[in-house]
Design a protein that fits this description.
The termini are far apart. Helices cover 42% and strands 20% of the residues. Helix 3 packs antiparallel against helix 6 and helix 9 packs across helix 10. With 289 residues, it is an alpha/beta fold. 40% of the residues are buried. The radius of gyration is 19 Å and the shape is globular. Helix 1 links the parallel strand 1 and strand 2. Strands 1, 2, 3, 4, 5, 6, 7, 8 and 9 form a 9-stranded mixed beta sheet that branches.
């Protein structure tokens, strides 16, 4: 089977209410050389029938059905395994999110122009009801590894978590994402955790003209976020240490720079996880409302 340039993989569970528009969004892309794979995770609504109908009218779309229901993390891993075998580049797509019509073409062009990069990340628009905000990566994250080798710890590791929906190079990028996704034991913040290595090692490029539209309101933080002080600390430390370990793959980083890096990553993990441990303690002591 000849590989497409790009594979777009939809991990879907009970997505009947929103999936048609998301599928339409990919069908309207100005890049023609793509294959879209809908992975039905044992849905109990009309997801499978909608997918069958869509595939019947557009041959670029294909339906695969899981033999058993997988957790969200397991299904993402399963879909990455599928994507990396189907095309030179691949991306995942949530069934309620959208993107600009040049999304695939702009990200593909970015990876074509930078063969050393493993991820092309888009500009992200987060939409919540009638309001929206545009997210760009902090320019300081680029050449992150060079800064560390020069003894300078960048002030932040700020990039949109939605870069997990960016375009990955199947050779190299997929293996790193799968390994990172597998090693992190929590569902909350796993997307940021997985992408962090590619950013820290300067393997990511920003395609500013491509826009990913993320619809908020799924309740992920409420569903997967830690509740107790112990679990909040545990997750923050795991996130911090997992990012810190990437320094082993960056040559020439001094011991003093590594210590500063750990401190910086610990502070950054407060933003990424949304776990303010001091605030948690003060509220428990009823010092802060």
């Amino acid at each position: 089977m000849q590989k497409a340039k790009v594979a777009v993989v939809f991990p879907i569970y009970n997505g009947a209410k929103t999936m048609r528009e998301s599928l339409d969004c990919i069908a309207r892309q100005d890049l023609a050389d793509f294959k879209a794979i809908i992975v039905d995770n044992k849905s109990t609504d009309e997801t499978n029938q909608i997918a069958q109908d869509y595939c019947a009218k557009d041959s670029r779309f294909e339906l695969l059905s899981n033999e058993k229901h997988l957790s969200a993390v397991e299904n993402f891993l399963h879909c990455m395994d599928i994507g990396k075998t189907r095309a030179e580049y691949f991306c995942l797509r949530a069934c309620d999110d959208f993107s600009s019509e040049n999304f695939l073409s702009a990200l593909t062009a970015a990876l074509d122009a930078h063969p050393e990069k493993l991820l092309a990340g888009p500009t992200v628009r987060r939409v919540n009801g009638e309001s929206s905000r545009l997210l760009h990566p902090d320019p300081i994250i680029f050449e992150y590894s060079k800064s560390l080798s020069d003894g300078v710890v960048p002030r932040s590791l700020a990039f949109p978590a939605e870069w997990c929906y960016g375009l990955f190079r199947s050779e190299g990028g997929a293996d790193i994402m799968i390994q990172r996704w597998n090693e992190y034991p929590f569902a909350w913040c796993v997307a940021s955790y997985a992408v962090a290595e590619l950013v820290m090692r300067d393997k990511a490029v920003w395609a500013e003209d491509a826009e990913y539209i993320f619809i908020e309101g799924s309740g992920s933080f409420e569903k997967y976020g830690a509740k107790s002080l112990y679990n909040k600390f545990r997750q923050r430390f795991s996130y911090t240490y997992g990012c810190y370990k990437v320094v082993k793959k960056i040559p020439g980083v001094s011991r003093s720079t590594r210590i500063k890096l750990f401190r910086r990553l610990w502070r950054d993990s407060r933003v990424k996880t949304r776990y303010d441990l001091e605030d948690h303690i003060l509220r428990r002591l009823r010092i802060r409302k």
